[in-house]
Amino acid sequence: MNKAYWYENWFDSKYYHILYRNRDTSEANHFIKNLINKLNLEKNNRILDVACGKGRHSIFLNSLGFQVTGIDLSCESINFCKKFENDCLSFHKFDMRNCFKVDYFNLCLNLFTSIGYFDDEKDNFDVIKSMADSVKKNCHIVIDFFNVENVIKNLVSNEKKQINDVIFLIKRYIKGNKIIKEVRIVDNDLEFSYYEKVSLLKLDYFRDAFEKLGIELVGLFGNYSLEEYKKNSERLIILGKKL
Questions:
Q1: Whole-angstrom distance between the N-terminal and C-terminal Cα of the chain?
Q2: Cβ contacts of 5 within 8 Å, gap of 6 or more
Q3: Structural domain span for residue 180
Q4: pLDDT in tens, 98-110
């Protein structure tokens, strides 16, 4: 396994999709509705969903009347999403460190902790830069990241899950400025190992990145109901406006 590109190996694995197959769609839809109400978007506005995964946010946004583009590096995810495409919804295999279209979108989203994957912090910064470059002037970007303080406080070190005949043995720990999740998989007589590695990016990191990119920080929220962000909040949801 090429550990330098863990996100390519893991996100395209069938076991990743088995482990995370029951993500909460109702929670995602609740979040999206609250965001749309907050931003007062108009129908047919263009939205870019960066690291869209299997498209649950993109598909729902499209159902609300928006033109949506989803991008993700995982072939497995994009192939799944393709069956939902229409004239106002498209999905593309694309590296989020690069700008998909310059000054084109009315809103750019990066949701459910889909940043911080890279060893080189310049790559993480480039994701935010690509988001800033993709939206028009006076339009918004939204980053939904876990709240580092809450993650560290509530870290579950060891966990076992069984889904049908597949057993997942999960180990979590902090190393340096990253949270590591090791996933050992037992599937009958077969065994596999993968891992996730996400940088512990705090609010000051995003403030600094926004300042460098000419993005005004206009909102901070601590959960998907868009309640005020606090140090013990579950999420760190950041709303920025391109100047």
A1: 43
A2: none
A3: 151-196
A4: 999 999 999 999 9
Q: Confirm if 129 and 159 have CB atoms less than 8 A apart.
A: no
Q: Which DSSP state fits 53?
A: T
Closest CA to 209 of 110, 109, 131, 114: 131
Q: Which two tokens stand for residue 68?
A: 């949506």
**Across 205-219, average pLDDT:** 97
Q: 66 and 130: one domain?
A: yes
Identify the pLDDT of residue 3. 44
Amino acid residing at 197: K
Query: With pLDDT > 70 as the criterion, what percentage of the chain qualifies?
Result: 98
Q: Are residues 179 and 228 in the same domain?
A: no
For 213-226, the pLDDT digits (tens) are 999 999 999 999 99
**What angle (nearest 5°) sits at the alpha carbon of residue 154, between those of residues 187 and 146?**
85
Shared domain for 56 and 173, answered yes or no, is no
Write down the pLDDT at residue 25. Answer: 85
CATH of the domain at 211: 3.40.50.150
Beta-bridge partner residues of 168: 161, 185
Q: Are 180 and 225 contained in the same domain?
A: no
| 170 and 73 share one domain | no
> Both 168 and 131 in a single domain?
no
pLDDT digits (tens, 9 = 90+) for 164-190: 999 999 999 999 999 999 999 999 999
Cα–Cα dist 210/122, whole Å: 14
Task: Tally the domains of the chain.
Answer: 2
